[in-house]
Amino acid sequence: MPLANRMQRSLQYSPEGPGLQIIDQTLLPHQLRVVSLRTLDDFCTAISSMQVRGAPLIGVTAAYGLALSLAADASDAALGDAIERLLETRPTAINLAWALERVRAEVVDVAPARRAGVALAAAQQLAADDIAVCQRIGEHGLTALRGLPALAAGRTLQIMTHCNAGWLAAIEWGTALAPIYAAHADGIPVHVWVSETRPRNQGLHLTSWELEQAGIAHTVIADNAAGHLLQSGRVDACIVGSDRTVANGDVCNKIGTYMKALAASAHAIPFYVALPVSTIDWACATGADIPIEERHGDEVREVSGIDASGREADVRLTTASAVAYNPAFDVTPAALVTALITECGLVLPTQLAQSKQALLGAG
Known about the structure:
Layout: E1 11-13, E2 20-23, E3 34-37, H1 40-48, H2 55-72, H3 76-87, H4 94-107, H5 112-146, H6 149-152, E4 157-161, H7 178-185, E5 190-195, H8 202-214, E6 217-221, H9 226-231, E7 237-240, E8 244-246, E9 251-254, H10 257-266, E10 271-274, E11 280-281, H11 298-301, E12 302-306, E13 312-316, E14 329-332, E15 339-342, E16 345-347, H12 356-362
Parallel strand pairs: 4-5, 4-7, 5-6, 7-10, 8-11, 10-15
Antiparallel strand pairs: 1-2, 2-3, 8-9, 9-14, 12-13, 15-16
Helix pairs in contact: 1-2, 2-3, 2-4, 2-5, 3-4, 4-5, 5-7
EC number: 5.3.1.23
GO molecular function, one term: S-methyl-5-thioribose-1-phosphate isomerase activity
Active site: 243
């Protein structure tokens, strides 16, 4: 998604540049700042602090981090240490482990002197693959949107999202927003209900900003308003992303996804999950087996924004001693998901295991 005279993708690498350039997403929407990651410490901090976030982007960023760390030390010990440190940054998104394993497999039998170059080529290929995969997700998702009754009735499509699964969460296009971008590009009238996604407010800060850049009509809502909109018939479909989908079709995504899925099911609203096949953890049997990241309570107790004078400020919402519980993700059972939108097409989540061979073969 192009920004005039700015980053054309969520990350960029140039051999002549100072490391990997990323958009610091913790500063959006108030400030668009590009920062460079050079060292393994830089990459670990960027992922854990959510300067980069979103399952596909985390994976590709970690791949570049491994490649650049091998440029400094390509020994077997350094390779193992770098992978271990990167894996510790975010435990829930499976793309992190998937991407690191892809790079490790490419370099493990290569002479240390060649490892950095081989790893860099693998990271660049992962980035290129992500762009193509997300574009296909958008095409398949657009087919699903074309089947909604609203279009036949001549109405604007009303889509609800949660968190951010646009190009900021991938390299280009994104996952959940890819069908929306495809619909908009095809001239289909679409309006997006953007839930704030407390406590990090990725919908409020990132999805709204993305859609504004693209000129797509949208309205920001408090998370607690989602059920009311679904109940009152003002939503035609929900589309969310996934940080990890497991073998039985259960979907792990940003906290608050499960509540929207319950409300959508109660009111017969299609609930789609858009994800690349790489986000499926075939080794994990059910959603109950997924490690759920718990983040610092200050993300609940505090909120960041711009004050009346235009300065960035953190404001505490509670007493300093208030106890806060901050799980970053929840699990939506497969039975609540209408379909998984993958680069291979739509898949029924309850039939995911039966589709494994076809999905992996297509990938």
